[in-house]
Amino acid sequence: MTRLSVNINKVATIRNARGGDNPNLVQVAKDCERFGAEGITIHPRPDERHIRYQDVYDLKKVVTTEFNIEGNPQDRFMDLVLEVVPEQATLVPDAEHAITSNAGWDTIVHKDFLTDVIKALKEKGIRSSIFVDPDPKMVEGAALIGADRVELYTEPYATNYHNDKEAAIKDYILAGEKAIELGLGLNAGHDLDLKNLRYFGEEIKGLDEVSIGHALICDALYYGLENTIQLYKRQLS
Ligand SMILES: CC(=O)[C@@H](O)[C@H](O)COP(=O)(O)O
Ligand SMILES: NCC(=O)COP(=O)(O)O
């Protein structure tokens, strides 16, 4: 069964908008788990536009499902992750001022760097997941680096889904099959939503986890957080 990890970045965006502590991020994380989330994902970016570094320490104390910290493994991020020791670290090649994550790693070009990062995570017992485009060659590169999992970057799928879902999913099926063939765990995320999630989950065999944030939090404005988490989980059942 594919696990749903709820990304609460956008809850932090709302909190930061007024400079206070409403909504309280720790309480929202606890409630997401109570409502059925099987993981909590956060992405502390260098400019702390939403998740702040202090949030990571605060959330570590309360997350009881799986804590997944995403980010570009620069020194500050790695120091944080190796201190907090989440269940999973997802490595994302984000430029500092990118509006959001917009590409996967070139696991061939960055092999040496990522190998050292993965080694440091392994020494702490942290599961590593490498954010990649749906390209079997990048999946192969992730396996050579020693990653535990890959996370398939699903924005292109989401963008193309409404035009031609069979064409949109094709590369993801091939990349997912390569991951399973090589013994890698398989995650996916970015722009998944209530319209495109079920088809993705049905077509991608062996999918361990999806991490979903932006669309889920937007949907929660209309359907409520508990109902929304249940709606997303029903797309995966
Ligand atoms: C890695 C990924 O695709 C998302 O988790 C992304 O990190 C979302 O970041 P924002 O919430 O800052 O758009
Ligand atoms: N890794 C993807 C993630 O955590 C959330 O992405 P999105 O649903 O906010 O696009």
What's the arrangement of secondary structure elements?
Blueprint lengths: L2 E5 L1 H9 L7 H10 L4 E4 L10 H8 L6 E5 L3 H10 L3 E4 L19 H13 L3 E6 L3 H10 L3 E5 L1 H7 L3 H17 L3 E5 L7 H7 L5 E4 L1 H10 L1 H11 L2
Mean pLDDT: 98
CATH superfamily: Aldolase class I
Number of domains: 1
Major pleated sheet: 8 strands, parallel, barrel
User: Ligands bound here?
Assistant: 1-deoxy-D-xylulose-5-phosphate, ligand LD2JLWAY
Gap from first CA to last CA: 7 Å
CATH topology: TIM Barrel
Q: What's the alpha carbon Rg, rounded to whole Å?
A: 17 Å
The residue ranges in which pLDDT falls below 50 over 5 or more consecutive positions are: none
Written description of the protein model:
Helix 5 (111-123) packs across helix 6 (136-145) and helix 10 (214-223) packs across helix 11. The protein has 237 residues and is α/β, with parallel strands linked by helices. The longest helix has 17 residues, at 165-181. The chain has one domain (3-236): TIM Barrel (Alpha-Beta Barrel), CATH 3.20.20.70. It has an eight-stranded parallel β-barrel with strand order 1-2-3-4-5-6-7-8, surrounded by eight helices. It has helices at 9-17, 25-34, 53-60, 75-84, 111-123, 136-145, 155-161, 165-181, 197-203, 214-223, 225-235, and strands at 3-7, 39-42, 67-71, 88-91, 127-132, 149-153, 185-189, 209-212. Pfam families: PdxJ. It catalyses: 3-amino-2-oxopropyl phosphate + 1-deoxy-D-xylulose 5-phosphate = pyridoxine 5'-phosphate + phosphate + 2 H2O + H(+). It is found in: Cytoplasm. This is Pyridoxine 5'-phosphate synthase.
